[in-house]
Please model this.
Amino acid sequence: MARSARRKLKLMERVRVRSAEERVQQILDERTERLAARKGGAAAPAGILLRALVCGTGRERFGLAVDAVAEVLPPQKCMPVPGGSPALIGLFGRGGRLVSVIDLALALGLEPSSTENDNQHFVLLRREHPQVVLRVERAYAVEDILPLAGDDATGFRNDAVTGYGKVRSGLDGQDETLSLLDTERLLRHFLPTSLVPGV
Model:
């Protein structure tokens, strides 16, 4: 009788351990599927207009989703960060908190602006910890962006670029193509992975 009770306890223990392992595997599988879906479906389908803040650096134009932007600030004096990435140009204080300043051109591997000037803008991202601004040569306006599809939307040069879009602007209603950026992907290279959602 004691032997059969022990046997039943062992069997129950094995079932409990196996089901816990299966639950862990199921959670990992679901997370993998969500990450794969996010990578494959980060850009909006063609035909759907996106609201984005159009920024410029050099000859390039970029679209930052308005949901990711908290505020556009004038340039601030920054304290350099010794030993930091070249794109991390410094820190400044705002509301009793430190804000990291990342140069968008350098973060994307582009030629940075030759000099700092009063026309530059700091784009404060909508995130709590850490607070980050992107230094851009110019923040133009919030526009409706039409994402491109097919061959027009391939060949991303950077994993932070999730697609391309067109905005109607300029003289004679010319279409201007810009790169659509995922700010969290952009920040992965500058922040500890524990601070980047979805990693």
Summary: Residues 38-42 have pLDDT under 50 and may be disordered. The helical segments are 2-40, 104-107, 183-187.
